[in-house]
Amino acid sequence: SGRSEYNLRSPICCIMGHVDTGKTKLLDCIRGTNVQQGEAGGITQQIGATYFPAENIRQRTKELKADANLKVPGLLVIDTPGHESFTNLRSRGSGLCDIAILVVDIMHGLERQTIESLNLLKMRNTNFVIALNKVDRLYGWKACHNASIVKAMKEQSRDVQFEFRTRLTQVVTEFKEQGINTELYYKNKNMGKDTFSIVPTSAISGEGIPDLLLLLVQWTAKTMAARLAYSNEVQCTVLEVKVVEGHGTTIDVILVNGELHEGDQIVVCGMQGPIVTSIRALLTPDPMKELRVKGSYEHHKKIKAAQGIKINAQGLEHAIAGTSLYVMGPDDDAEDIKEAVMED
Ligand code: GTP
Ligand code: MG
Ligand code: NA
């Protein structure tokens, strides 16, 4: 997670959408993992986080742009559940991100939680791109593994191209009914103004994944330099409180900005009042691995934003997910910070 020469932090991208549109599978496709198949009932029930170093993104997008200068150190992607009962987690995820991917199943169009997610994004004025997923389900689709979508579309029969255009038009119309203009990303001259970009994808055969990644990192670096400017001030949110074998009670956090160190005095909101403790271990999964999935952890002396981190410290049993974590500086007044923490 090195700093970029531009001193930007990694953008945080939240992936949202109706249940089973393929959010986790898209991430599996990029990571080369199988998280989705390990989920109970194939349903995501927690917020996840995966860090993609710029180098991996460069590899994955080189067919589209060999010399992509990505300017950001990487991309932190937050996975959210699409099931109707997890509105609070979608809200939490969307509140943390700089940009979002709204996933729509091309065979189903806009569904209930697509619209709920869209409204969360509108409310916070968050920019997003639409992944029009499952294009491989168009009848007669010829797989072009991990190809750019323009190249893959050229390989398709007239019938497949016709079905694609028909379904795309339907989805564009449904977005219009929600007051949102959309357009295929490579035709969209008004991205960031009033028209949102659609990237057709398949999480099974990988078509459109290079397009989606390149669009995200280039767009954020181009338009969000001020927002992504690295700052020393720690901005950090607790995602989950978990007991982990060999580590005791830990918290999974998203570090949005700043730097955390082993030994830092931290204050988090607890059920019985503020919890003041010190960081015993700062752990991350390997790059391109999901934070919420048990695996091996890398230990760090310090970590810079943006990153998904597991923190091991004493007394975290009653920490409350969704609240902010504060770091006590040498000049800080402990009572002020304790008060601020409990205001969450
Ligand atoms: P929740 O997190 O539970 O809301 O679902 P999700 O949006 O993460 O969807 P998930 O990744 O669990 O995928 C749901 C189902 O759709 C799984 O059976 C996937 O294998 C399948 N699927 C996902 N993406 C694609 C795709 O691009 N093509 C095809 N054919 N199937 C897909
Ligand atoms: Mg999922
Ligand atoms: Na699912």
Automatic annotation (TrEMBL):
Compartmental location: Cytoplasm
All copies of domain Tr-type G, residue ranges: 8-225
Family from the record: Belongs to the TRAFAC class translation factor GTPase superfamily. Classic translation factor GTPase family. IF-2 subfamily.
Protein name from the UniProt record: Eukaryotic translation initiation factor 5B
Full protein segment contained here: 391 to 734 of 990
